[in-house]
Amino acid sequence: MKKGFFALLVMLPLSLPVPAGADFAKFRDRNDTPSPLDIRWVSHGHRGKDVEHQIVTYKPWDVGDLRRNWFAMHVNLVSDDPDATEQDFGTSWDYAVSVSARGKGLTAEIWREDVEPSQLLGEVPALHPTPKKLVIRIPRQFLDAAPGPYEWNAGSVFAGHGKGACAKKSCDDWTGKRWWNLEATHKG
Fold first, then answer.
1. Lower CB density within 10 Å: C or N end of the chain?
2. pTM, to two decimals
3. Which CA distances in Å does 33 have to 3, 76, 125?
4. How far apart are the C-alpha atoms of 139 and 156, rounded to whole Å?
């Protein structure tokens, strides 16, 4: 993999709220990183045949902040055992998705990490509908979408490049591991 960590995309109309019938869960994160990419909360859910994540930060950021920094997500699958527990997952990730700036917009690269060398599976556009929000939608075909539990996390990597509290080191912010069962929630 070329960049380090990677993140996921969601194509969501800019003014569309989470629909009443969708299965979404929201997880809060502490205000603990002196970076504009400090994550406030993440949400996870299913929209048709896509897995959707939203990342909201404490502070506003713009596309230019992702020229040398990025949001990232990792996903592990255990699709052959619906009763899998955390001990069933390894320390490496099956997939990584990175969101970074490309031109005036954002793009998400989806990587397969459980093979050597890592394989770029594709790219999808990422949305920045408000000054504090990133929306990522990943087509399930990229994730070998067999029903079963999987774990995921989200994070941000921000290097201040000579400015502020992150000037001399990277200010990384990672949420904890989160669980979701594709079989129980996917309605597509």
1. C
2. 0.75
3. 21, 25, 26
4. 22
